[in-house]
Amino acid sequence: MDILLVASAFNSLTQRVYAELSDHGHRVDVVLATHGADEVRTAVRELRPELIIAPMLKTALPEDVWSEHTCLIVHPGPPGDRGPSSLDWAIAGEAPRWGVTVLQAEAAMDAGAVWAAVPFSVPPVGKSDLYRNEASDAAVAAVLLAVRRYADGSFKPQPQSDPSVRVVWRDFLRQERRRIDWEVDDTETVLRRLRGADSQPGVLDELLGREMFLHGGHPEDRLRGRPGELLATRAGAVCRATRDGAVWIPEIRPRKSSGDRAPFRRPAASVLASPAHPSSRGFSGRAGGGASEGGLPPRPAARPVRLPEMPVPLELPANRRTWTDIRYRQLGDVGLLTFSFPGGAMHTEHCRRMLTAYRYALSRPTSVLVLGGARDFFSNGIHLNVIEAAADPAAESWTNLNAMDDLVEAVLRTTDRLVVAALGGNAAAGGVMLALAADEVWCRTGAVLNPHYRRMGLYGSEFWTYTLPRRVGAETAERLVTEARPVSATAAAGIGLVDRLVPVAAQEFPAEVERMAAALADAPDLGRRITAKAQARERQEVVRPLAHYRDAELAHMHAIFFDPRAPYHALRSAFVRKVPSGSARPLAPVGEPGTGSIL
């Protein structure tokens, strides 16, 4: 069928619905509702779709559109659930199960007849992770079912007036209900509130005299202090005491009214240390007297102090509950280097620490090394939010890209073991190319890949001119980077971008990767494969050294970064600051608003 997607943003779910409907042979176009009702009307008039689907819509469809065409709304709640904060309420209420409903658009919000509904379990993860994984899996299943039913022509959608449907209206979950009382709330309550707003809108709070939004939360089992006190920093995150423990907060967003020149999500420590902050470096002032590993809370500080920088543990005992964004484990002949960065974005220090961790992993006696393997994002390339906030964004772009290239090159030059990239979730731009540097790419079936850079006005680097044609052929590589469209995991496997699909739920992905990696390490031909890999790398280096690919790519990127008129700068700023830009059809600039990475 000819299907038109209407969305408020071409976010992860819209991309996945687009890709999977295309895989099923439908002709799919996209229009962004952010460009106004007239843009939607024009798209409907010109494209004349047989069916209109809204995977993620924050505004109402024009009445003349839904009254004249069948329009299906994807609502992230079970049948009867109504309101704009469905997933937020599911997390706040500790619901063990939730659902996605595809319903027909009508005048009353979320009140239309139900075309399909699919339930899902709610694990203890952040809202954005839940949205991109369990909720996304259910949404795609519901959309495909609804489309089949619509095409069949005999299905009668169920009115919500049916007695079996329990209608519950849930208002917008406002900041008053999200607010943390650090003196009263226990750690689990704090974590639930932080996780329920990790992407948007964040939890409004006060830190060192300024109102800020806190994004994301992870438990800490040893550091202690007065409730609300800032205790320490680690890898850009800050640790804050609760009444019975502590939590790590990876990112902070200054409130726009604060006067901060960069009012968007960034690593928490960098926001607190920014020149805009009255206490600047070291977080002096109301932060208090630092941290104590267990024991009694420290005494109040008599004068301002600097927060201690805690080491980033690479290897952790199984019983530890603390936050680290990079972790190494070894299971027999398998090394597992897992990493998880907010929004999948990797800034300069992320890349440098990843390279250090990768070199450590290479020093261990293994025959198989797995990169990734966690649920949710693999990587989305360089960190646009950090770049946008830098005093010199061009210079930071260049530094960040070179650090990313260093990591990718290290993977490409590994010849003494097999390297596997295990993608539990989405990847884009340089993140896809990081995966392609490995010998095998394993991908959860729910992931979406964006193997291109064009929609951010970039040529790209990370050795894509070597790895992408090597995997899919020159013609397909050219099509991928010029069309710049999202690719489902299944389609990626079909063209050679992915070696093995992993058809499991997000929660089961890490264990399945461990099982698959152990089987690979036990394979009788593993030694032969490693030897052949080393010989191939030696031959390829003679034909054209890796340095030639890198130098050629970086020449393009240097010209873009340091040209103030290059579209990249305006596109980056619009993306980070969530300002609509570009044409709405057939595809919008590809990205997940607020992640700070190229998507």
Automatic annotation (TrEMBL):
Molecular function terms, GO-annotated: catalytic activity
Name the UniProt record assigns to this protein: Putative Hydrogenase maturation
Ranges where the Formyl transferase C-terminal domain occurs: 174-256
Chain spans, region Disordered: 254-305
Source organism, top-level taxon: Bacteria
Compositionally biased region (Basic and acidic residues): 254-263
